[in-house]
User: Fold this.
Amino acid sequence: MTNFEGLELAQPILHAIEAEGYTTPTPIQEKSIPPLLKGRDLLGVAQTGTGKTAAFALPILHRLSKTCQKATPGRPNALILAPTRELAGQIADSFKVYGQRLHLRTSVVFGGVSVRGQAKALGRGAHILVATPGRLLDLMNQRHVRLDQVEVFILDEADRMLDMGFMPDVKKITAALPKLRQTGLFSATMPKSIQGLADGLLNDPVKVEVAPAATTADKVEQKVMFVAKDKKRALLIDLLKDTSIERVLIFTRTKHGANRVAEFLGQNGVQADAIHGNKTQSARQKALRRFKEGNIRALVATDIAARGIDVDGVTHVINFEIPNEPENYVHRIGRTARAGADGIAISLCQHDERSYLRSIEKVIRKSLPVFEDHPYHAADVANGNTPPPRQGGQRNRNNNNNNNQGPKSRTKRRPGRNRRSPKIAA
Assistant:
């Protein structure tokens, strides 16, 4: 297969693809599109950034262009479920781009914004509905949408759906779908729980796996820098002195941490914004738009946004905090080296994150190269030696008489806070 022409897609779709500058399908597209065009169910496993959206969007557009006429109010013909608002919005944008020469209408619904406008759009009719589970259930309960005419159902980023606790909602939604339908399930990783979900949803599926589950993209250059916790911010600023870091995603584990890092960068002359679940939808969209348009150099995000950010030209990903779930590492660094480009992923590892690093290396089946040539290299962290006592933390709870910090220096734990997820250094 050398180009999209060989996939026998409808001419309007091929023209739209060509107008976007795409000529050759990616491996996941080349292997997924033919069976989906034949109406087969499909289980697709591929790294993030490999073109999964087009792999299911193009066959859906082709099918509906041949079978559908006018959209029925509140009764879509195709349903795509996505775990985050950003991902849902970007999937809908892709459908609109690839289907721009077709008389097919796409709607997107997600939380964080008024339900009224989304209900009105569904009332006008949509052939294709892209949705997050919670908002879709709300609209179903309010009788704004019925799923009895859905011909094709796609569950995207299924492993993330599981991580975010959406499986009960997904099961309620799938129970409302027609039994006779085509179903596709796409995931970047394939734990046993997702395999079990696939067994219950798919009928004699074609399995497409373009890379081993939980492996990282070949074109991402990965490295780890060992650093003391209280030197991380200084190291981050030192890294950003490199002008080759043109557009960078910086990941933290917490929402408050993302805000603090973005604020710190701004104070040090780096244009940055934060994106996470506590932000309003309009604020998230504004930050993402500014990042896409190059108005800010850095976007600081939590893992909830890791799969919803599809921005061309992200040159670097920096893990300011290493994720405590190794699969999230795969999704984070997949935001760079997209669509055949190269990218660099840098992880800043403090002492109490070494166990997270070992888990990541186990999952991706390789060791991350260590980069020592920086002014904040911490040999004790690299060697796994016991770090100096932390000020005011759990380690010093019984030693307050032996230091000069006093009780006021102790960081209060919030109820339910994970002891293994430390706050960002001041």
Remarks:
- The longest strand covers residues 220-226.
- The chain has two domains: 4-209, 220-409.
- Confidence is low (pLDDT under 50) at residues 392-426.
